Amino acid sequence: MSVVIDSRPRKVGSVLRKNIVVEGEYEDKDIETDKTESGTQTRFGKGSKGKCSPSGMIQKCIKQIIIPNHKPKKRKIKLMDWKKYHRLNVIYAFIDDLERDYPAICTVTTIGKSVEGRDIKMLKISNSNASNTAVWIDGSIHPREWITTAVVTYIADVLVKNFHNLSNSITNKDWHIVPVLNPDGYEYTHTHDRMWRKNRACYEGEYGVDLNRNFSYGWGNNGDEGSSEEPNNVFYRGPAPFSEPETAAVRDTILGSTSPFKVFLSFHSYFELIIFPWGFKKEPCPNYLRLLEGGAIMARAIYNATGMTYKVGSTKDMTYYACGTSIDWSYAIAKIPYSYMIELRSKKHKFRLPKDKIAETCVEIWSAVEHFMDYVDQE
Length: 379
Ligand SMILES: [Zn+2]
Fold this sequence. Notes:
Blueprint: H1 12-24, H2 26-38, H3 54-66, H4 88-101, E1 106-113, E2 119-125, E3 133-138, H5 146-161, H6 168-171, E4 173-178, H7 183-191, E5 202-203, E6 206-207, H8 245-255, E7 261-269, E8 273-276, H9 288-306, E9 311-314, H10 315-318, H11 326-332, E10 338-344, H12 358-377
Parallel strand pairs: 3-4, 3-7, 7-10, 8-9
Antiparallel strand pairs: 1-2, 2-4, 5-6, 8-10
Helix pairs in contact: 1-3, 5-12, 9-12
Bound molecules: zinc ion.
């Protein structure tokens, strides 16, 4: 389950030239790109810790130039796996590689740009059958919920690498998978603040809109109970519905789709819940029982896979008023009948789910998704 992303050997000369140039620009560029591999290591290996003094740079360059047989270190190979949490570039390289290796069923598109200009990438997995319905899956709309991106990429991996052996209820869907819906926030949780929840927009001198309060349906309802109008609040809903490019990208992709969406799954952590509309009011949604039963199907599959118990119910019943959420919008406006938020593990560790729990969380959720697709086709 690992992917070699860049193991191509480079010519010595080109590497030397690259090192000389790149080291001069080191503080601007390399920390940003190379920290992604291990958090602190640079391409020059252990010991440099992301710092590079000018005299050190010169000495290193001279050493490389005057020793003809010096072998430059190969670039560290980036591996996608589900043994640890990964930075954005590893995630994006992973889906790009799926597209390269499985071009018949995989397409990667950029559905929008984040506030800070990062790509919001989506992997579409499809056999291009015109009668397919569509599934939406997103992770890390709340960036501190790292397990969501791990689970979503795992689902993509299983789908792509087993596509022709999977059941008809899986292969008759166009899968739209956005592993990191909030890439600015996701990177920020790796570089600055592990507990960051919002995007990185700036309003009135304060950073961040809670993207899961920025969708239009029920936006701003219930005052402070459902979201906040204060930019410094963790639940700040933004100045207007869809004020943020990340939420607008979801809207435009779904409403612009040629295949009709049947399922919308937005992944969160850490309450171990499967919840559905409404969040903006306490009344049950129109097909409450059908959604409840679908949630129960997923919860049973999870229990059978790992013994974990996920509870099922409406957003308001199981948590609190949440207004302007993606699933209230997808259900009411985009008319996606099976719209759920899945709150992954763990109540014990909260947002800091240990990496040794990633794999079994992936397995239980894949089982849930697989069984659920049979259910949504039984109509
Ligand atoms: Zn969340």
